[in-house]
Amino acid sequence: MVDSIPSIWPHSALPFFISLLAGNRSIALLQQDLIAEAAGHRIPIPHYTNWLSEFPILLKLHCIEVVPFLSSSYISLHDTAIHPIFSSLLWDRTGVQEFIDPSHDAMRPAIALATKWITSDLFLGWWIRVLYGTFETDKESGKLYLAASPKEHDFPQAKADLEKAFAQLAENLRYYWKPEDENTAATSRNPWMALWGLDNQRWDAEADAHINEFAPCINLPTIFLYHLLSPRGARQASTCSNLRLQFHIAKTLVHELAHAFHMFVHRDKCEPYIFLEDWIPEAGFSWEQFVFGCDVTAFPFKLEGIGAVCAMEFEHMHAFPGICVPLAMRWVEKWFLNETWNSAPDIEFCNPITAEKLLKRYQGLIYADRFLPSANLWSRVLYQNQKPVGIQSLAIPGAPPPMGMRFNAMANLGMIPHRWNIQEWFDQVREKDIEAAVASGFDRDSFVKGRSKVYQAQCYDNDGIGPKC
Ligand SMILES: [Zn+2]
């Protein structure tokens, strides 16, 4: 039956898409690992200490493993209810036929969590606002947003309407694995637009010709596929490594579904601020703000493995330099526990602490991007109890090539002074670091405060200079 599912790709695009898959590193490594496994070779799981120098500190503070290990029942093991909008039948099989069913099984915990996020009463307010909301401009701020409809008050009816809308969207929606070794995902209005995203020069005319077709497709990157299926992937590394992977995939899936849902309800209209208090008019981040109050992303997210899940104010999300808080593994784990969902999860748990909320003399962990003049490079530095304790090299576009790290680089960073709270301190050192880096030859345009250029260009309000809806 599954062989009869038509490909989302137009016939003329099949060789193009298959050649992209053939050249993709995540797919090549996955195939290589699976062949080695089938041949009975011992596959070494990469050890964190080889690629995450601050691993022992993160481990000690329980950001990597849950200590003591608590094995309560996880939702994925007992909850068989998976929303049809995540059905494996919606995944495109072109060039990846052998991976579709195994990967769908492997990400069952993520799909179970994503199902909770789109069906639990506590979180339905976001979807109901998109479903019923009407476009209005706020007089004070000039922001275009979705104003509440009186229909929101009839919750049982709203819930039923929402379920109907999800069912209709599921009839049009498709997913595909995008050949991509970075942690990215996107939603396109139709496969022609998705092709345009893969090679905008080659598919420009076709994408333009099909601009009005509504057949949304969500892509996840093949690096997720690698981590789900390779014997060396994050799913195999440990229970907690798998939970971080599953959390990350769940969040990414629902973020993209938020875009597809807005597109389904409001068609040609651009994404407004769903709620007036949103950081940017971007449906996926609006949903994240609704559920988490911030951005939560596993960092780093590489082929070698997946680091701690970190909480970041939206303001720092696409900025550089930025600051974030590595979260205890317990927080990630809690989303997957049956007991969390037996009653509604409380908001205090849903919203993790971010740097902006930290007071003076913070004893825990933060990551801050710092410039290390002695090594002439930028690094994400881990602080514990106000002291720098770990360092990670981080290349940014436009930077001169690093000259190599010197051992004293961290010693020069100093402590976070007790008189400042974390955000005040970061505001200060960010300015100093940027000036020092520019003086050392870094391109000033590489640094972003607040909204990234990508989002400035995409958001309709564009800080006042962009296209209007
Ligand atoms: Zn998005």
From TrEMBL:
Q: What is this protein called?
A: Uncharacterized protein
Q: Which organism is it from?
A: Melanomma pulvis-pyrius CBS 109.77
